[in-house]
Structure formats: structure tokens, C-alpha cells
Design a protein that fits this description.
alpha+beta, five-stranded antiparallel sheet, three-stranded antiparallel sheet, 4 helices, 8 strands, 34% helix
């Protein structure tokens, strides 16, 4: 299980003056090919996370956090998801710097994409 690949979708945002870092994920049967994007599984994870956020808008307005990529899809080993991701999330929610979070996320991931949208288009995955 420790070497299994996992696809994680996360959003850096603010709600009611507080940072939030919701996370969703799914295991991968095989690593994503080096020249490929995360495809339908990535789209499904992003949609799931965004729908969960939509359902929480009645708790207060949601704003994306910062100017840098704030909706990410990351491929990493399951061990990193279980051991390191909770620590990074806790540190960032407690006021840690964005730069530290991004740097440490890059160290954990095998590959990553920022997710962009365009009107009438599928999500656009840009290598992060």
C-alpha cells in the first residue's frame, strides 16, 4: 500500500476569514503516463471537490486563496498522502506561508497539475 500511486485534488481557499484546504483523492491502478494528463479521473476528482465546495457556500462566501495555482491535482505515493499531507495541511491552516506549502507539496509529488477552466471547455491541466 505504501508504494501505491494516489491522485489528490486540493483547493487553497478562504471562507469567513479562515483558510481552508479541502482535499479529495483516489487510488490509481497505474501511474499516469509521463506524457499524459490525468484525464477523466482527474476531471472527476476536480468536479467532486468543486461540488463539495459548492454545497458549502451556504456557510459563507468562498474565495480562492492567493494569486498562484490554488486548485491542484497531484500524483504521489499513498505513504506521502497518509504521513505528510496532513502535516502540511495543518501547518498551512495555522498560518504557514504559501511558499512553504507549495515547496513541500512539490517535494512530495511525482507530478502535478494546476487546473484551469475556460468557458464551454473541459478542465485544462497545466503542468505544475
Amino acid at each position: 500500500m505504501a508504494n501505491d500511486h494516489y491522485l489528490v485534488c486540493l483547493a487553497l481557499l478562504n471562507q469567513n476569514g479562515k483558510r481552508r484546504l479541502p482535499i479529495g483523492g483516489a487510488s490509481l491502478a497505474e501511474p499516469i503516463a509521463a506524457d499524459a494528463d490525468p484525464g477523466q479521473q482527474g476531471e472527476a476528482l476536480a468536479l467532486d471537490l468543486l461540488l463539495r465546495l459548492w454545497q458549502q457556500t451556504n456557510l459563507g462566501p468562498i474565495q480562492s486563496h492567493g494569486e498562484e495555482a490554488n486548485l491542484l491535482l497531484l500524483e504521489m505515493p499513498m505513504a506521502k498522502v497518509l504521513e505528510d499531507l496532513p502535516r502540511l495541511k495543518k501547518a498551512w491552516l495555522a498560518g504557514g506561508s504559501d511558499a512553504d506549502l507549495y515547496r513541500e507539496l512539490r517535494q512530495l509529488t511525482e507530478r502535478g497539475w494546476s487546473i484551469q477552466t475556460a468557458k464551454y471547455s473541459k478542465p485544462i491541466f497545466q503542468i505544475w
